C-alpha cells in the first residue's frame, strides 16, 4: 500500500512540498497589473496624444519648473530631517525601556493612519501666526505656515514613519555583542557608532530616507493647506497636476505626473541596486 | 597578569545571578568556568571583563583595583560565543580594528598595523583569507578570526565566553588543542566559560565549578575528578549512578538492593554515588553488594561499551550506566531485558547531614568495605 503511494508520488515529481505556488503567483501578478501597471499605462496613454514639443512645453513651463524645484528641495530637506529624527526615534524605541513605550511606538504610525487633509489642516492651524507653535516661532522671526518651510514640515510629518519603520527592525537585529566587542577593543562611543553600528544601519536608513523622499514628492493633501500655494514660491508639483486637472487638461496633467513618476521610479531603482550590492557583501553571496 | 575577584555579587531584578564570591586566578593560567546554564559563569566572566558591573565587591588585575575602570581601558581580549565579527569589514579590517581605534599617541602607523594583522593572520593560519568577509567563512574560521582580533592589542588577559559552543564536535576538538598551544606559547592569563565538562577538564589548569551563582569547587582537573567536594560537582562531571536508602546495621538498603557499610552508624536518607567505570557487572551478587539491574540499552560507540540499566526490584531516580570493555561485552553479549548485578568498587557516600562525600572502597579480596576519611583513601588511590 505504502509502496503504491510512494510510486504514485514519484510519478509526479514536484520540487515543492507546499502547494499553491502557481495560483498565488498568478493572483499576485494580476493584482500588480491591475493596481500598478494598468494605471501607469493609462497615464502614459493620456500623454500619447501630445507631440514631443507639446509634452516638452507643458513640463518645462517656468511655473511648473519652479514647482519641481520647490518640491525637490522641500522633499530633500524633509527626508534629510526625517533621516536624523527617524533614526533617533527608532534608536530610542529599540534601545531603551520607558513607561509608555508601547504607546509611543503605536503613535509612530499616526501619520500613515491620519488622513493627509486632516494633517494639513492641523499643521496649518498649529503653525499659523496665531497658532500654538506659529506664535512662538513668529517671535523668533520664523514663518512656517504659507512658506516653503511649511511644505517641509508637512512633508516630513507625513513621511516620518518610513524611516522609523525601516530602521527599527534592523536595529533590533543588531547584535549587542558587536558593540561590546568594539568597546572592549578600546573604541570610543563615537567610533563604535560610526564604524560598527552605522554601517549596519546605513542600507535600511537610506531606504527609509528614499521612501520618505519619494512619498514627499507626491504629497498633496497635507501640503496644500500649509503651503500658501504662491506661484513660483510655494507651489508643489502635485498642485500643478491638480490645477491642470481643474482646467480639464488631462494630457498636461498626465505629462507632469509622468515626470514625478519617472523621478520616483529612477530613485527607487538606484537605491535598490546600491542596496543589493552592499548587502551582498554582508551576506556573503 | 593575575586576576582577583573579591566578594563580587550581581543581581538582575529579582534573580540573584551571583552570590558574593571570591576567586584568585594566578598569572599565566588557563582557567575554565564550568557550570550549567544559569549558574552565573558568563556573568562572572563579563564582570571580570567590565562588560557588566558588579553590585558589590572588587576586581583586581595584578593587584590593581579595576572595578571602576571602563571595559575599553581594561585591556582585556574578549571572545564571544557567536564571534561578534563586524560583518561589513573584511577579516583583515576586523583584526585591525582594535589597533586603528587606539589613541593617536599609541597607535602604530599604517604600515605597522598591516604587518601586525599579517602576523596575527599567520598565527591563526588564515593568511589566505585576509580579504574575505565574515559571511564567507566557516564557524571555526570565524572563531579564529575573533581570537586574532582579541589578541591584536596584545592583552594580558584573554576572556572567552563559550568559545567553542557553536561549533561541531570535530572542529571544537581541533580548536581546543590549538588554543591550549597558543596559550602556552604566549603566556597570557585566560579565563573561559563552558558548560562542557570534558572541555573544561581537558583544557584548563584550574577548573572553577559553579552552580546557582555560587562557586562549588576550584581545583585542578585531576583533583576535581578524584575528590569532588559536593553532590553537585560529582553529578556534573559525567554520569552518576545512585542508590538512595537507609543505613541499618551496617547496610545501606532500599527494596531488593543493598550494599554493606561496615561500621557505619544507622542513618536515614543516605545516598551512595557510583561512577560508571567504578562499577562491575556480574551475573551473581557479591557478598558486599546486591544491586539487581535489568539491561535497557547498549551503546557500542567509543573506547568502552556503555550499558544502560534499570533498577530491578528497587528504584533509582535515573537509569544506571555502566562502562564495560569490548572484550567483556563480547564474552557476555548483553541483550535488552537481561538481568545482572552491579558490584561497585568505589562509592561516594553522602549522609543527609553532610554535604561532603565520604569515599568508600570495597576491597574484593577482603570482601568487606573499607570506610575511611576522604584524604586517606585518596592517598591510597594515588599509590594504587
In short:
Chain A is mainly α and 285 residues long. Chain A has helices at residues 2-11, 21-48, 52-59, 62-95, 101-107, 110-113, 116-127, 132-139, 148-173, 176-184, 189-218, 221-227, 237-246, 250-283. Chain A has one domain: Orthogonal Bundle (MetI-like fold).
Describe this structure in words.
The complex is a heterodimer of chains A (285) and B (384). By secondary structure, chain A is mainly alpha-helical. Chain A has helices spanning 2-11, 21-48, 52-59, 62-95, 101-107, 110-113, 116-127, 132-139, 148-173, 176-184, 189-218, 221-227, 237-246, 250-283. Chain A is globular, with a radius of gyration of 24 Å. In chain B, α3 runs parallel beside α5. Chain B has 2 domains: 3-228, P-loop containing nucleotide triphosphate hydrolases (Rossmann fold, 3-Layer(aba) Sandwich), CATH 3.40.50.300; 239-372, OB fold (Dihydrolipoamide Acetyltransferase, E2P). Chain B is built from 11 helices and 22 strands. In chain B, a hairpin with an 8-residue loop joins β17 and β18. Chain A binds chain B through residues 175, 177-178, 180-188, 191, 195-196, 199-200, 281-285, and chain B through 49-51, 71-78, 80, 82, 84-88, 97-98, 101-102, 133-136, 146, 149-150, 152-153.
Based on the model shown, name its key terms:
heterodimer, A: mainly alpha, MetI-like fold, 14 helices, 0% strand, globular, B: alpha+beta, Rossmann fold, OB fold (Dihydrolipoamide Acetyltransferase, E2P), 12-stranded antiparallel beta sheet
